[in-house]
Amino acid sequence: MKFRPLHDRVLLKRVESEGKTAGGIIIPDTAKEKPMEAEVIAAGPGVYNEDGDARVALDVKAGDRVLISKWAGTEITVDGQELLVVKESDIMGIIEGAAASSKKAA
User: Fold this and answer.
1) CA 79 → CA 6, 42, 83, distances in Å?
2) pLDDT at residue 35, as a whole number
3) Which domains does the chain have, with CATH numbers?
């Protein structure tokens, strides 16, 4: 199944944080908080401007790593994968250089 967000909505996949603290203590899944970092899977085409004659493009694009509020969006399941649909206004910012740092760690 394909999912394409409309207007100013963005499809995100939460980025799971490491399940261990700096001191080496393993955190069980039941005690973990929802991650606030996510990767943009797809973005809508944008909303129309006040005149209604042109679209205002979104600032995010597929592949961006973003920071979102904890309780933002609607959780959906597509092809067995847990995803999140949020409005662009629920995104607090884009994490610059995240792709490069994750490649170094691998």
Assistant:
1) 19, 15, 10
2) 62
3) 9-18+27-105 (2.30.33.40)
- Residue holding tokens 């607090």? 92
What's the average pLDDT block by block, 10 residues per block, for the chain (106 residues)?
A: 84 75 64 72 87 85 88 86 89 76 46
Query: Which of 100, 11, 96, 102 minimizes the C-alpha distance to 62?
Result: 11
Q: Which residue stretches of 1-106 are H helix?
A: 98-105
Nearest to 1 by CA among 104, 99, 78: 78
Please state, in angstroms and rounded to a whole number, the distance separating the CA atoms of residues 85 and 75. Answer: 6
pLDDT number for residue 2? 81
**What is the bridge-based pairing of β-strands 65-68 and 91-94?**
antiparallel
Q: How far apart are CA 81 and CA 105, in angstroms?
A: 24
